[in-house]
Amino acid sequence: MNIEDYKGVFVFVEQVDNVVSNVGLELIGKASDLAQQIGTKVTAVLLGKNIESEYKKLGAYGADVVVGVAHPMLEIYKTEPYTHVLAELIKEYKPEIFLFGATALGRDLAPRVSSRVQTGLTADCTVLEIEEETNHLLATRPAFGGNVMATIICPKHRPQMATVRPGVMEMRPYDESRPFELIQKEIDIPASCDNVEILEVVKTKSTSADIQEAPILVSGGRGVGGKEGFALLEQVASKLGGMVSASRACTDENWIEKDRQVGQTGKTVRPKLYIACGISGAIQHVAGMEESELIVAINKDETASIFDVADIGLVGDLHKILPAFLEELSKTEHANSALK
Amino acid sequence: MKIVVCIKQVPNTSEVKLDPVTGTLIREGIPSIINPDDKAGLEAALRIKEKTGAKVCAITMGPPQAEKALREALAMGVDEAILVTDRKFGGADTWATSFTLAAAIRKLNYDLIITGRQAIDGDTAQVGPQIAEHLKLPSVSYVEGIQVKDGHLIVKRQYEDRYHMIKVHFPCLITALSELNEPRYMTPGGVFDAYREKEITVWTLEDLDVDRTQIGLKGSPTKVYKSFAKQLKPAGTVLTLDPEEAASYLVEKLKEKHIL
Fold this sequence. Notes:
The structure holds two protein chains of two kinds. Chain A is an alpha/beta fold. Chain A has helices at about 20-40, 55-60, 80-95, 105-115, 225-240, 250, 285, 305-310, 320-340; strands at about 10-15, 15, 20, 40-50, 65-70, 95-100, 120-125, 125-130, 135-145, 150-155, 160-165, 180-185, 195-205, 215-220, 245, 275, 295-300, 310-315. Chain A has two domains: about 5-195, Rossmann fold (3-Layer(aba) Sandwich), CATH 3.40.50.620; about 215-340, Rossmann fold (3-Layer(aba) Sandwich), CATH 3.40.50.1220. In chain A, the strands form four sheets. A seven-stranded parallel beta sheet of chain A has the order 7-11-6-1-4-5-12, with helices on both faces. In chain A, helix 3 packs across helix 4. In chain B, strands 11-10-9-12-8-1-6-7-13 form a nine-stranded mixed beta sheet, sandwiched between helices. In chain B, strands 2-5 form a two-stranded antiparallel sheet. In chain B, a hairpin with a 3-residue loop joins strand 9 (about 140-150) and strand 10 (about 150-160). The chains are: A alpha/beta, B alpha/beta. Chains A and B meet through helix 3, helix 4, strand 7, strand 9 and strand 10 of A and strand 3, helix 3, helix 4, strand 9 and strand 11 of B.
C-alpha cells in the first residue's frame, strides 16, 4: 500500500428509518477541522434505501462531497451488505481518514470494515488531531475504564479509522447555501451478502426525549435512594427546563430507564448545566459528563470524588437541598414576573 | 454442536484507582477477572450445552497467567480450554489479536463462536467482529437474547432505541452483552475438577499456521503514540451550608452564569 495515494477525510453517516443520526453530523464537523489542516475535502457517506432527502443536510453541515448508495439491501442495517459497500468505496476513493460513530451500529461495522481492508481502527476517541509534520491522525481515547488516556496512531495503513461516541464532537452551524458535490453511486451487492434475516424490528423507547439533547440535566445517583427520589429530581428538572439522567447504579436498580444513563456504558453528555445529586463520581460516570459547561454536585459525603470535577460542590442531603432549591426557584420566578 | 467461547482475563477496572499525587495508575493488588461480557458468553454457551448436549470450548490469548481464567471457565462447566500464548503475540492491537485468535479457532470444529461485546480494560468491541471477518463468518453483535433452533439461531440484537430479532445460520459468531444472563458460580466440585482432573491445552506460535508478519506488536496497524493521566480541571468551590443557604447560593450562582 502506498499511503501517498490516500486522500480525503470520509465520514460514515448512519441513518435509522431514513433519518441521519446526529453523531454523523457531529463527525462531519470534526472532519472539516481535520480536512482544513491537511488541505483536503470532507466526504460524507450515506447508505440506505430512500435516503435522497437527507443528502442536502450533509452538505449543509459541512460535507464537501456526499456519496449516497441506495439499495434495497441497505434499508435496515446488516453487517455484511454495509461492509461490502464500504470496502468497495474505500477501494475506489482511497480515503486517508474514515470516521464512524461509536454507536451500536458503528461499533459493529467499523471493526468489520477495518479487518476487511486490513487497516487500524481506534475506538471511542475523544480527541482527534493531525500531527503537523506527518499529517498522521492522532486519535486519543480513554483506556482502563477511563483511568488513563492513550493517543493511537496508524502510521503505515490506510485509511486511518476511528470511532467517536455521540455527543463528543460538535456540529457546525447548519448552512443550506453551502455548495456540495453529490455522487449517487451504484454498487453491486452480491446476493450472498444477505446472510442474516431480520425477523422483527421492535422500538423500545420514544425517540423524542434524549438526554444528549437536553441543555440542563438533573442527574441522580445511588444517594437518590429510589424511584420516589427521582420524582423530586423530575420536579427540579421540569422547573429548569431540563431532563433527568442517572448513574449506572440507578439504571441497574431499575429506578429509571436505561436510556437515561450517563457514563462509559451509557451516554456522553455535555449540557450547559449538570446537577449531580447523590452521585459518588466513579470514573466511569465522570467520563460521560465531565465536558458539561457547569457542574454542580450535591452529596452528603464530602470526600465523594464527584467534588473533584464539580465547579460548585454542596455538601449536604439532596433530599433537603433540592426542595429548598425548588422553593427558591419559585421565589425567583415570582420576582421576575413581578418585574415584568 | 460445538461452541467456542473467546474469553479475556482483565484487571477489574472498577477497582483501579489513580495515585492522587502522581496521577498514575495504581496496578498493585487489582484482582484479575474474566471480562464480564465474556462471562455472559460462557454462561450462554453452558445453557445451550444443558439443552442440546453441545460441547463447549473456552479459548483465550494472553500471558501464561491467563490460565486462571480458563480454570474458572472449566469450573463453570466448559469441556475444553485452550491457552494461546507466546511472547511473539505480545503487544497486539485488536487487528493482530483477532488475526491470531482466528488462526487458533480455525484448528477447531465449531458451529457457533461467542465472544463478549467488549472488554472492560480496552472497551473497543472490535475483536469479535474482526474474528468473524478473518473467518468469513456471518456475525451479530450486541446480543442480549439467544434461541437455538435447528441449524440456526434467533438472537435479539440491541440498538440504542430498538432491538432486532435476527435469524442467523451456523456457522456464525455472536458478541454477547452482559445483560444476556446472570453467570453461574463455580461449584466446589467444578473447581476441584478444573484444577485436578482437567487439562488446559497450550498453543504457541509453533502450533498456529499464521503469517508471522501479522502478529504481535509488529503485525499491529495501530501503535500507542503516547499515554498519559487525564488532565484534571481546576478545583471548584465546595461548601457545607444549611439546605436553605445552599439553595439560595445555588440560585445566585446560576443567575451569575446566566443559566437562570
